[in-house]
Amino acid sequence: MRVWKRLIFYIILNIIVSAVTMLLVLRWWESRGAPQAALGTPVVILVTTTPQATTGIDVLPIVEKSALETPQPTADLLLPTPTIEVITYYVQAGDTLGTIAAAYEISMADILAVNDIDDPDQLFVGQKIFIPTGPLPTQAPPMTITPTLTPTLTATLPATAGPQSTATLTPQGQPASMLIDTVIGAGDLDSERVLLKRTGGGELALAGWRLADEDGFVFTFPQLTLYQDGAVNVYTRLGQDTVVDLYWGLSTPVWQSGETVTLYDAQGEVRATFTIP
Length: 277
Prior knowledge:
Shape: rod-shaped
CATH superfamily of the domain at 177-275: Lamin Tail domain
CATH class of the domain at 177-275: Mainly Beta
Number of helices: 3
Structural class: alpha+beta
Radius of gyration: 56 Å
Number of strands: 16
CATH architecture of the domain at 177-275: Sandwich
Largest sheet: 4 strands, mixed
Order of helices and strands: HEEEHHEEEEEEEEEEEEE
Distance between the termini: 180 Å
């Protein structure tokens, strides 16, 4: 009985010693530290970030590498973007976008583009705006072809209930001349007169022109200049000349029905005729 008790005692003691020995070995092992990675082996850590919205630049995943790896030359991933130099300006009382643009010798369109302003009239005192120091790059506008219209000299009036009429325009550059419009009060000395009107453009000097009937009576015009749309009356009787009324100075009437009135210029050429009705 005593032998079995001693045997059990030694077995238990052996287990305890083995356990203590194992614990000591493990603690010693931990104190020495875990095996490190072999020297020269690169350690690569990949960290991927969510791309953020940027202007003209794509955000790439960030790759970090250990100092043991030899860096390799890479191409430029970021392209240079043009920069615009601006001046900060605060709107003063009485300022308009036009006066600001003129003061800095820059176009209003460039100021609107830089500041993203929709309405140029909505400036307020103290507003902070940016003024570019030079013109912004622009694209050439597409070529616009504008057809050339050829004017016509005849204008047709709109149709009416009555007969249609056509108005003919006087071409620019037509030489000035005269026409005998009518003879008023033929045979009555007090009212007898010839009405002449100016036609064409420019000025017309009547000095030396002559008005004649079929019986040899001739009226010579004094120094007189008619302008566009001008007119003059030539009275047969005596009177005081004005710029619109001339007086022949006769004591008897000259004109009668059926007679032809002829107008000559200073060179003796016939310029107009009129038959009295």
